[in-house]
């Protein structure tokens, strides 16, 4: 039996690197000095660090989700569905992390938030260019949303590019047309800066796929991957809305929106409407 720290067996194994004077270590690879210095509360309220950290973590997840969506869109354009399925499955799992973040933030009480809310000024998550870019990729197009990003030319240019490009769903419909399915012409060549409008013709095409899954299995799988992504996104929207209601009730948002009422309006908007409508007709 041994006692005292000097008698304990070291957890350093032979071959473990301990001298990083001239080597890259974990912190430098990840840029942790910069990352961990990015939380700068503007008040003495203890919960402001929680608020900042949760939103910064969500921005990192959104960055990764955007990367995966870009990969999925490129793969669909190239008629390579297996890589697209992998990317879309990863997006769904990233969204699960985004949803769970609201569970942590909801531990903050109204009094906790009011202790630093004034420090936020007019800033609001509604102004996140990454969130807007994510929505644009999924098809929630609205040219008016560019206005709040004019002060940042790089972000504005990127969002304008995404606004005017086919969305994930647009590329999926163009793929169906390339496969010989009768997708209405006005759904595959149109003004991409406008949102897709639900189409009976598109629903009929998806119904053909769902009624003969053996023949169209990869397109059927694509449809279900899209539904997974939207399902998770709507859960994220709902948890966001309920977290805001839990903390500030029905007060206006810091960015000037109506708060919970504004967030509720998004719950009725679908990225891929025909994929939800067809379920009642199978």
Write the layout of secondary structure elements.
Blueprint: H1 26-30, H2 32-36, H3 48-77, H4 81-105, H5 110-114, H6 129-138, H7 153-163, H8 168-178, H9 200-211, H10 217-248, H11 260-265, H12 273-277
Helix pairs in contact: 3-4, 3-6, 3-8, 4-10, 6-7
Overview of the molecule:
Helix content is 56%, strand content 0%. It is built from twelve helices and no strands. It has helices spanning 26-30, 32-36, 48-77, 81-105, 110-114, 129-138, 153-163, 168-178, 200-211, 217-248, 260-265, 273-277. The mean pLDDT is 92.
Summarize the structure.
Helix content is 56%, strand content 0%.
Task: List its traits.
282 residues, 12 helices, mainly alpha, single chain
Alpha-beta content class = mainly alpha
The count of helical stretches stands at 12
Largest sheet: none
Radius of gyration: 23 Å
- What percent of residues are in strands? under 5%
């Amino acid at each position: 039996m041994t006692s005292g720290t000097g008698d304990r067996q070291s957890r350093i194994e032979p071959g473990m690197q301990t001298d990083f004077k001239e080597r890259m270590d974990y912190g430098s690879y990840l840029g942790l000095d910069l990352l961990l210095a990015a939380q700068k509360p503007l008040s003495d309220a203890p919960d402001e660090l929680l608020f900042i950290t949760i939103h910064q973590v969500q921005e990192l997840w959104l960055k990764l989700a955007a990367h995966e969506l870009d990969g999925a869109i490129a793969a669909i354009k190239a008629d390579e569905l297996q890589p697209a399925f992998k990317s879309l499955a990863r997006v769904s799992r990233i969204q699960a992390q985004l949803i769970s973040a609201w569970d942590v933030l909801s531990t903050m009480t109204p009094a906790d938030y009011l202790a630093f809310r004034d420090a936020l000024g007019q800033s609001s998550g509604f102004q996140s260019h990454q969130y807007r870019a994510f929505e644009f990729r999924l098809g929630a197009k609205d040219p008016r949303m560019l206005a709040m990003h004019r002060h940042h030319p790089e972000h504005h240019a990127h969002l304008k590019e995404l606004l005017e490009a086919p969305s994930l769903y647009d590329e999926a419909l163009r793929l169906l047309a390339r496969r010989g399915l009768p997708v209405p012409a006005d759904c595959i060549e149109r003004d991409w800066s406008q949102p897709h409008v639900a189409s009976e013709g598109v629903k009929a095409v998806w119904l053909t796929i769902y009624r003969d899954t053996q023949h169209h299995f990869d397109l059927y799988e694509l449809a279900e991957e899209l539904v997974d992504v939207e399902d998770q996104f709507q859960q994220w929207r709902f948890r966001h809305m309920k977290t805001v209601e839990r903390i500030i009730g029905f007060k206006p948002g810091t960015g000037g929106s109506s708060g919970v009422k504004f967030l509720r309006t998004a719950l009725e908007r679908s990225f891929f409407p025909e994929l939800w409508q067809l379920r009642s007709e199978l």
